[in-house]
Amino acid sequence: MAKEVTGTVMKVSGPLVVAENMAGTKMYEVVRVGKDRLVGEIIRLEGDTASIQVYEDTSGLTVGDPLVKTGLPLSLELGPGILDGIYDGIQRPLERIQQICQSVFVPRGVDVPNLDRDKLWDYTPQNVKVGDLVSGGDIVGVVRENGLFKKHFIMVPPKFSGRVKKMMPAGKYTIETPVVEIEEAGNTTTVMLFQRWPVRQARPCVEKLQGKEALLTCERVIDALFPVTLGGTAAVPGAFGCGKTVISQALSKYSNSDVVVYVGCGERGNEMAEVLSDFPELTTMIDGKEEPIMQRTTLVANTSNMPVAAREASIYTGVTTAEYFRDQGYNVAMMADSTSRWAEALREISGRLAEMPADAGYPAYLGARLASFYERSGRVTCLGNPVREGSITIVGAVSPPGGDFTDPVTSATLSIVQCFWGLDKKLAQRKHFPSVNWNISFSKYIRILAPYFETYDPEYSMLQQQMKEILQKEDDLQEIVQLVGKDSLSEDQKCTLEVAKIIREDFLQQNGFTDYDFMCPLAKTIGMMKVIVGFHEAAQKAMAEFSGEHKVGWNSIYASTKGLIKKITDMKFELPRQSEEHFRKTFVALHEEVLAAFRTLAEEK
């Protein structure tokens, strides 16, 4: 073996190590620090010295300790075996480390291959034969990963191209087996079942496209009022206990994405443990067989008791994994919980480097780092043949201290993302969950998504607008009610207040622990909107048409439609796992019943 190129440690400051004799190294190169060979990454070069961010606990390091240069950037191994796994911030497999070390802690300097080298995978060649020209992104074969994720495509790595010289037949292979050999200008390169890719570099695509389909979250408040596209960005800021993690987990469980990458970045360990215990129990029916949804999920865990510096890498690890599945033509949802903890890791390292601090001690480049992360989302045309499209939707939770949305991380995130689900402490205290505040939240995707939703119901845009107006009016009227009481309001205003109450309590509120409301398919959401808005319109119309001695007030409408209002508030009890046709019939019938009730009321007058 060639002699290892070494440097020496000259200063240790928490996760930051400064080393000398580092001439010839590159930025973001991985080095192994000290006798325990801790993993570190070069983040600043100055003359012969390098500042190294160490991804493990540095206690016990001393001045003069050796330091080994690897010459490689921090890279991930992308291939079969990523799904249904849990990794730390630099893609070390936590489950396998636990089996090898028989310890609940990750030993320092542990060196385990990221993907299992011994497992055999069913490989089938596809699309190409010997003599064909191939380029980066071309699909050359397919591996069956598991019962839920059946097609894991094997692609030519992005920067390779040439003529196929040799191909392996279908069979069972380990991930290091060269399944295709490519020759270009006399050089032979091999395509294995996995590929390496540096985390800080975005994977290339042909072009970015505008999103056109919705990420259906199965949460009414989001699907109805603040939708996000497949390939969009959303931020979920909220104080402690408002339900950020629960929203992220609900998206992972029930959204219409093909792959979920869940990054637990600096949150409490019990939240990741909850994901690990919940997800394997949740199943979906595939070809008549129950498959756990954990099989389409990969977890990157960097909880609050793990080294701070590795938090910074965990976000990049997650998004690079998401890009790999996007390149195969899948829709990927990436949950980052929480980006505030990631920003704190940036602040820690920036402070150690003695950089000039900006607002609240965060580095001046915080906004640029956040933007470059969110920029890696989007719907794209993938590289290579066959032509395919993929997308990455990023949902970033933000934890502003004390729920203060003027915090630098929140305000920087708000200027980047297109969809904002603001969680409200007051709603959470009232046990109104999901506690998305409809007065401060927004989505800039509504106009883009209108054609998509109108395939479900041509009136969707109108229904959404009406609902928002009713909630807005309620907010305006609330002040008057608190000052002088309900009796001072006009009849139509009383009606608006009551309908707004139905929207709040029986439409926007959703209990994730019940068998009827743990999710809500779009057909049910739109059906409920139609009935509620239809009732409001019919009531307002009845009050406007009859004046003078035949005047109809809200009290008389309420008295004559009591049973109907009960039916409207009971709509949520329709079980979610039923066909679209069933929901359509049920809610159209109820809508007709509403109109018929008001016709009867008019005839009586």
Automatic annotation (TrEMBL):
- What HAMAP family does the annotation carry? ATP_synth_A_arch (MF_00309)
Q: What is the protein named?
A: H(+)-transporting two-sector ATPase
The record's top EC class is translocase
Entry's EC annotation: 7.1.2.2
Q: Which InterPro entries match?
A: ATP-synt_VA_C, ATP-synth_a_Xtn, ATP_synth_asu-like_sf, ATPase_a/bsu_AS, ATPase_F1/V1/A1_a/bsu_N, ATPase_F1/V1/A1_a/bsu_N_sf, ATPase_F1/V1/A1_a/bsu_nucl-bd, ATPase_F1/V1_b/a_C
Residues annotated as domain ATPase F1/V1/A1 complex alpha/beta subunit N-terminal = 9-71
Q: Which CDD domains match?
A: ATP-synt_V_A-type_alpha_C, ATP-synt_V_A-type_alpha_N, V_A-ATPase_A
A Pfam family it matches: ATP-synt_ab_N
Q: Which UniProt keywords apply?
A: ATP-binding, Hydrogen ion transport, Ion transport, Nucleotide-binding, Translocase, Transport
Domain ATPase F1/V1/A1 complex alpha/beta subunit nucleotide-binding: where? 220-443
Protein family per UniProt: Belongs to the ATPase alpha/beta chains family.
**Gene Ontology terms, cellular component aspect?**
proton-transporting V-type ATPase, V1 domain
Taxonomy-wise, where does this protein's organism fall, top ranks first?
Eukaryota, Sar, Alveolata, Dinophyceae, Suessiales
Q: Where is the ATP synthase A/B type C-terminal domain?
A: 452-545
* Reactions listed under catalytic activity: ATP + H2O + 4 H(+)(in) = ADP + phosphate + 5 H(+)(out)
Against PANTHER family, the record matches this protein to: H(+)-TRANSPORTING TWO-SECTOR ATPASE, V-TYPE PROTON ATPASE CATALYTIC SUBUNIT A
Q: Which GO terms describe its molecular function?
A: ATP binding; ATP hydrolysis activity; proton-transporting ATPase activity, rotational mechanism
Query: Domain ATPsynthase alpha/beta subunit barrel-sandwich: where?
Result: 112-200
